[in-house]
From TrEMBL:
GO molecular function: transmembrane transporter activity
Name of the protein: Major facilitator superfamily (MFS) profile domain-containing protein
Source organism of the structure: Exophiala bonariae
Presence of the UniProt keyword Transmembrane helix in the record: yes
Family from the record: Belongs to the major facilitator superfamily. Monocarboxylate porter (TC 2.A.1.13) family.
Length: 457
């Protein structure tokens, strides 16, 4: 998690000890990849974060595996979609198939909003075991699926529920055990989504022609099972403690223009976020006419490029205000989406995928600490609630974006122009909505600096 400026830094550190902020892939947290964050009450007053040590770094390892099992699998859906369009679900439209991955991504974030209070109530072990079981079980059931509704229930609903239940408790515990090393700890964990997003598409492409769809998905499920076993061993050692659950809504936020535009911005940014990730393989295969191997590698390259995007916000957190990082990435992302229409060669598309991976990584990590700014969260007691409210909007956007783009694209003829323009316009709207909170934050910080200067002079 990034930290904001001024004397709020100290408040943020102490508040995170009480209210844990999770990062998606996003995106992280934060997602997509790009990973989505929330805040949770996870520590007692008597607990002193060790800020390192074997136990703390084991939690980072568990976080790495959780990210791989959540956002790593979710960001692989572009490979699944290309196969479904060509083979298993060839009688379904691109829009209908996109709903499978969109609902999966939506549930990872949306369920986390409710997983937070459950975690606060002391259901840590139950959530970890249930989430890991549902993730693996959903993958296994996907391997047996032969129709749209079966794939939707198994991969979209079951896997999405499992990922959403598992994601939040792990990140909350990592934040609990670290103070000054928290950014690098969460950053290392977040890299798991990129690693999973690189490995899974390549495995899917290499194994599917040789052993078939069913056994390929089972192999991926067995890898997820291995990760899940380690996750349960590490996190299962931590006994959940019942605490007061936080509120899901802060109605006062609805009367604050800066927060409203902030929430709208995240809605539109993630409305466009998954469109490239879901259609990169299909675009490469049918619009550029590349080989299937090359097309599947493009998704892996994109997920690999997100590693830098997921770590840069953590490194710049104390030098550049998070909202500026987010504004830059959203504007750059808008330019990339419009320039996507001019990509007609494999070499250019490789460069484009790397750049989009970077933008995707930033989009799922930068929003977390921005929400913690006093303009958007006037009291540290409502940071978690407001994070949940803002990411609730983003989860809805991520769910409906790709299906709409699928209806606008003609995959059979390789015509993606309308979907590309649509994605660019939507992200441009998201960047425009960021203007209000950016100005409000800048005014607040400058006024605060003037007050501090006058007090010291």
């Amino acid at each position: 998690m990034q930290q904001f400026h001024g004397d709020r830094l100290g408040e943020a550190e102490s508040a995170i000890t009480e209210t844990q902020t999770s990062v998606d892939e996003k995106s992280t947290g934060l997602s997509g990849t790009g990973d989505h964050p929330r805040s949770l009450s996870v520590t007692s007053q008597a607990f002193i974060p060790p800020n390192g040590g074997l136990e703390a770094w084991l939690l980072v390892l568990a976080g790495f595996l959780v990210f791989s099992n959540t956002w790593g699998i979710t960001s692989t859906f572009g490979a699944f979609q290309a196969f479904y369009l060509r083979d298993l679900l060839s009688n379904e439209s691109a829009s209908a198939i996109s709903w499978i991955g969109s609902v999966q991504a939506f549930l990872v974030v949306f369920i986390g909003i409710f997983a937070g209070p459950l975690f606060d109530m002391g259901y840590l072990r139950v959530m970890i075991l249930t989430g890991c079981f549902l993730t693996v079980f959903g993958m296994m059931m996907t391997s047996l699926s032969t129709s749209f509704y079966q794939v939707f229930l198994a991969q979209g609903i079951c896997v999405g529920l499992g990922e959403g239940i598992t994601y939040i408790p792990c990140l909350a515990l990592i934040s609990t055990y670290f103070t000054t090393k928290r950014p690098i700890a969460i950053g290392i964990a977040a890299v798991g989504s990129s690693v999973g997003g690189v490995i899974f598409p390549i495995m899917f492409r290499k194994l599917q022609p040789q052993i078939g769809f069913g056994w390929t998905v089972r192999v991926l499920a067995f890898i997820a099972l291995g990760c899940a076993i380690l996750i349960c061993i590490i996190l299962g050692r931590h006994k959940g403690e019942a605490r007061k659950a936080r509120s899901l809504l802060d109605t006062s936020a609805l009367r604050e223009p800066a927060f409203i535009f902030w929430a709208l911005s995240l809605f539109f940014l993630f409305f466009a976020y998954y469109i490239p990730l879901f259609f990169i393989v299909s675009y490469s295969r049918w619009a550029l006419g590349t080989t299937e191997d090359f097309a599947f590698y493009m998704l892996a390259i994109t997920n690999g490029g997100s590693i830098l995007g997921r770590t840069v916000p953590y490194l710049l957190g104390q030098r550049v205000k998070p909202i500026y990082t987010l504004m830059f990435s959203s504007i750059f992302g808008t330019i990339l989406l419009f320039s996507w229409t001019a990509i007609h060669s494999s070499a250019a598309f490789i460069v484009w995928c790397v750049l989009w991976g970077f933008v995707a990584g930033v989009l799922v990590t930068a929003p977390t600490s921005t929400t913690a700014h006093p303009v958007l969260s006037p009291s540290m007691n409502v940071v978690g609630t407001r994070l949940g409210m803002s990411w609730m909007g983003s989860s809805i956007g991520s769910m409906i974006g790709a299906p709409i783009a699928g209806a606008l694209a003609n995959v059979a003829t390789g015509d993606f122009l309308h979907a590309q323009i649509f994605a660019g316009v939507i992200m441009l709207v998201g960047a425009a909505c960021l203007t209000w909170p950016l100005i409000a934050i800048e005014r607040y910080d400058r006024a605060k600096l003037r007050v501090q200067s006058s007090c010291t002079s």
